[in-house]
Amino acid sequence: MSALSEVRRTLLGEPPSFAAVPKARLQPILAGPGTPTIDVEQLAQQLEDIAVVEPTIAVESPDHWARTVRGLGPEIDAILPVSIPAYPTEVWNSHPRPLIDRGLPVIFWPLMAYDEPDFWRWSARDFLRALGVEVYIARHQAHGRTLVRSLAIRRFLRSARLVVFGRQNFPWNADAAGHLVRQRLGTEIRVRPLADIRDLYARFDDQAVDGLWAERKGRYVEAGVRPDELRRALRVYLAIRSILEEERACAFGVNCFGDLVIDGGRDVPCLAQVLLREDGSVTACDGDYCAILSLMLITYLLDKPCMMSNMYPVQYVGALTDHFGDPLSPDASRYPKSQWPHLARLAHCGFVGVISPEMTPSGRVRLSDWGGTYEIKRDGAGCGLDADLAPDMPMTVVELCFDAHTLLLASGRVCETTRHADMPHCESSALLEFRDLPGFVEHISREHTAIVYGDHVNELTTLGELLGLSVKVF
Question: What is d(CA 347, CA 312) in angstroms, rounded to the nearest whole number?
């Protein structure tokens, strides 16, 4: 299963421009004559998939330095100072004012021959930071790469848009708190009614829908979903895709339990979520815009598939019993009770959650009728997704909090996917083991957690800090 931890998200074609992070643009500036600390040509080749490294500008004089830095266009994301080794009397130290005025980040790249930080830049970093310049010393080339990608993501988020559908009656109320995301990350949240989706269904006849499914069904197994409900689920996908194109939005979520399902609707967007991920969109359940943003951070930084679902610590026996009619306790012979404080279940809408096929051991997802909940009974309608997560798999859990300033990161592993007999409202759940679940719960934002395979705490910490977030690691 270790190969699944390295799998990239599945994309069927190039995502539209409004759903793709553009390459970062870096400007190397050579401080003076001598052997440079960076092989700029080699660096450009190493970063070509995520960045454009502009031709190096060699400084001719302090005035030329000032004109060069101040004249850099808005397309430049960072300056790469290039100097000679172990000789810190550089022009950015003698003449820092242009860096202060221009306001661009500065990255001191690691020594490429040794893949270690250029510690001669410690003092320059502190000096320039004291003057208000954003400065980074890359610890190694992989860290430098994360910094570069994070700069591109920061630029992207400042103009990105996401759409949430349905009434705003959960704590993830975009009408009330979405402005915090706009203020702190720049991302716009648009709220639209469910009717905007449903009004488009008539555009797509059965022939068009069946043709679409013939192209896309290879990763899905029809296992109980009715043909008419499958067609309706495909119309949901086509309708939402049209709205995202109209809005030029990169992500969406639908408030199912606060609007769609409780009013009797079964045109749930589960299948639409995974199909739109194949188009390059980021998708999450229940219109939780913080979960959507958490998934955006994962997706754009790591290019890996991810998912979100409800997380339930198994030690809360009473709350689980009230919600499921069963505590969903782990097998004590395999998971001793002393381990339970760090164990949690992942479950949503009768199944583990909306899992993309590339996250499953089989590479395929089963389409069933919508699974319901203990409170809202399953009725054979809708199109839900049933799939397993990979067992014994390292994972990273991500939660952006409602303040759009705090980012929670937790590490652990997926233990297993458990099948629950005679529980139609919870056919399956995933059992997770956290490194520090009590600590995570002490600071938790909400039950919705975003999950990605692998240990990515360091990379996501770098991204979070570059975005100006307060990162807490558990």
Answer: 8
Strands 365-368, 220-222: pairing kind: parallel
* Rounded Cα gap, residues 55 and 47, in angstroms: 14
| Block residue for tokens 């130290």 | 93
pLDDT of 143 strictly over 90: yes
The DSSP 8-state label assigned to residue 257 in this structure reads I
The 3-state DSSP class for residue 415 equals: strand
Instruction: Count CB neighbours of 319 within 10 A.
Output: 12
Which DSSP string corresponds to 344-392? EEEEBTBBS----GGGSSSS-EEEES----SSS---S-S-EEE-PPPSS
Report which residue type is found at 47.
L
Contact 6, 454 (CB under 8 A): yes
Q: Cβ(440)–Cβ(408) under 8 Å?
A: yes
For residue 107, give the nearest of 133, 130, 136, 87 by alpha carbon: 136
CA distance 162 to 164: 7
Say whether pLDDT at 38 is over 90: no
Please give the pLDDT value at position 234.
98
